[in-house]
Known about the structure:
The chain has one helix at about 1-20, and strands spanning about 30-40, 40-45, 50, 55-60, 65-75, 85-100, 100-115, 120, 135-145. It is built from 1 helix and 9 strands, in the order H-E-E-E-E-E-E-E-E-E. It has one domain. The protein has about 150 residues and is mainly beta. The strands form 2 sheets. Strands 1, 2, 3, 8 and 9 form a 5-stranded antiparallel sheet that branches. It has a 4-stranded antiparallel sheet with strand order 4-5-6-7, with no helix packed on it.
Amino acid sequence: xxxxxxxxxxxxxxxxxxxxxxxxxxxxxxxxxxxxxxxxxxxxxxxxxxxxxxxxxxxxxxxxxxxxxxxxxxxxxxxxxxxxxxxxxxxxxxxxxxxxxxxxxxxxxxxxxxxxxxxxxxxxxxxxxxxxxxxxxxxxxxxxxxxxxx
Length: 150
């Protein structure tokens, strides 16, 4: 019976432990990342991710000419980096489907204030200006902090 009580307590306390506070008193931050993804001028999706710092999320987008997979991770800048308050780093990895297999294309890191879009784009072979209407891949990522108390 003691084992069952301990098991029930452990199951009950696990969700509470997920919201445990860090030593500085803040709950572990979570961020909702909204995106808009254009492929060759066509809006192909608006994936949404719920991320904690250091834990990547992924999504795939099928375009008319190519398919893409993006991994997105958020990280809060360190004080020494001199970032604006309420800013985030987006770490973005991009893979492209080639001959039925995912091939790594590039990765990048962008800093952006919360609520403002960060833009990642893949430029075409012609090197022309690349926007949502012309790029093989154009992605806007916007993060909002999620209140841990609901």
